[in-house]
Task: structure prediction
Amino acid sequence: MKQVCIFILLLKTSALFAQLKQFDIVSTSMPTGWKLSSQTQNVMQFSKTEGTNWAQINIYKSTASKGTNELDFEKEWTELIANPFKVTDKPIKSKSEKFIKEWQKISGTANWTFNGSAVTTTVTTFTNRNTCISITCNATKPKYLEEYKQWLKKIQFIPNNEVETNLPATSKYETNSNNANNFQFNKTNFDDGWTSVIKEDWVETSKGNIKVLLHFPNKQADTYNSVLKESDYMAWNILVAPKYKNLQNIVWKTIQSWQSISFMEADGTEISSGKNVHIVLFKKHYSNGTGRYLEFITNSKSEYEKEFGSYHNDELGWEKPANMQYRNKFPIATNDLMGSWSTTDYTSISYYYINGGGLAGTNATTTADKFTFSSDNNYQSQHSGASGMVGNMKFSNVVYKGKTSVSNWTISLTNRFEGATEKYNAYFEAVKNGRALILTDRLNTTYTLVKQISK
Result:
């Protein structure tokens, strides 16, 4: 019954969360009678419990479409349900049908058993020409699935916010060029001897015999779980274990705190090379959600400790391994910028009356930033926002136009605030099948921008 207990614990903490109504490209109201139980950068979860019965609704972050609604559904069912929960029954699927505007919808449902309880799962996948997003419902009673279906009719998709990839970071330095993936630079030589190269599912940074794999976000491995040990073993089985054989001496040493440290290590044989190696899976869980799983591969435990320090049972002092995630950094060429890059942010807090617990109002702030670069070295940027108590919010909108000048690690834009030129520290962070553009101005304001898909 461990997982059912997790649901109950999440519900107990749900009052700490604001009543968010926007996630990724989805805009919606909270299902009546349900609680917002958790939210990470990859999934938002609503939960409901009545005695021993429970249900979850999970909205997963959008990804690039495989081309059709049917293909997207098959991929999502496999990644979200079949593989993690070992569901072998084929889902009973609806036909793909039009939802709103360019979006197609398809649903599939199957029954399975979890800790002796019968569970019904429905996956609903939405697809337009470029983007795929899935919402799931796991329930122990049919009435919860009916509530899910009624709520599903009310969701909206946020215009011009369908994205190819997502991600932030910070880092530095020198470069090599290569023309893979339609970007000029795919290799960075750092001045301290480390070299980063983009691979299909990670950035591989190396120095001498040491390799560190900076894993891209993975929907399964990054799924929120309040039991950190279960999260770490899930990540280990997805990201690490398939690349090795004869794994032994597997140890879980995670430190749980405000910004937890995930740490697992083992010895094994690397399948690709046949070498016996020492493996460490590491992640610092930054409070802003930017932590990444890092896989350290060395010839021995002593070699790892010589480079990155020995394990210590304290959440402080992990800067050297943690900072390796910032080696995911690649320079910018002018042609790489062409098109529109955007980001949105939303925060809110709800207030409740002490007597009676009724909602007293919600204070929210939302911002949107969009930069468009053209081939004649012109740019336009639009910065809009709204803040205040919901129902009485104040709005702002600023547009700048000017010229762009690009070097490997900086972008200068003319005619910014009061006509001045603003110079940004700039770089690309690699994500699966693309890049995120990172801009930081002189006030240390950072924009993490994703490229908008042209219609």
